[in-house]
Amino acid sequence: MSLLQSPVPAKTAERKRDIKERAHRIRVAIAGAASLLLLAAIAVYGANYYTLPLDQRPYSDKYELLKPGGTIGIKLGVFGTVLFFIIFLYALRKVVPWLSRWGTAKQWMDFHVIAGVTAPFIIAFHASFKFSGIAGFAFWIMVAVALSGVIGRYLYSKIPRSLNAAELSLNELHLCERELTEALLAQSLYPAERLNRVLAVPSAAHIRRIGPLLAIGEMISLDVRLPFQVAGLRRASASLTRTILSAGGLLSSGNREVEHVVRLVRQKAAFSRRVVFLNQTQRVFHLWHVIHRPFSYAFAVLAILHIVVVMGLGFMSLGFR
Known about the structure:
The protein is mostly helical.
């Protein structure tokens, strides 16, 4: 009796995990959209000020608002500082027990990346795009941190993890890949030859031979091509009207059978590439940690030094006029 009932709790737990994951994706989407809207609003409002030559800005009506020491400029600086602390919460969660209980490492990293990408733009607006002295040096280090953070998030997504955040073994990856292959063989919508062209990956020997950096470049190239290959599958089984409505196959076709195959193709492509690129991805990810962390700490020191100097000597001494 217990054996017959065991799948029910498992399905319930899986359903709860799916609900939590969807809720997280919604929160990430809202945070990302809010960031874009805020940056767009500042850019539109301040466009006729930020595009002025430096010697003409004091004559602008928005000078007292948007200069680094202005009403809005100071608030942008404060907000940039808040984002700075949010960025470093991701590292703190590993050593502060109560923080680690709030969400998974992946969920924290998603918001870590959003804050890390938004912060350089906010600081650029705060500085009125004048990058000199300690503040300028800190800004360019922040840009390097943000760019490396985006790369790190991409690499992180390519290292397969189970629900408890432990890395999946290579055998488990092969098992998942075989199951997806069998599911694709059972469909009759597309010939196997066509699907094989979409799902083609380099050999493991080739990836080992070209080294980790070139391997990552090849992986990125495959990921960039996949949406267009999937669009080709949708177009092959759609009418002209459906093709137009789906933006040439880049959006959902509305055909449940087609979308089922597309979902299988994406999952199979993801697993196949993880199997082939796993070792190289892990190597580059570890190397990324070596590079990303010193930049992050250097930025932290310079940002704190900048704040201390501003608070100690005042805005005038830094030329924020």
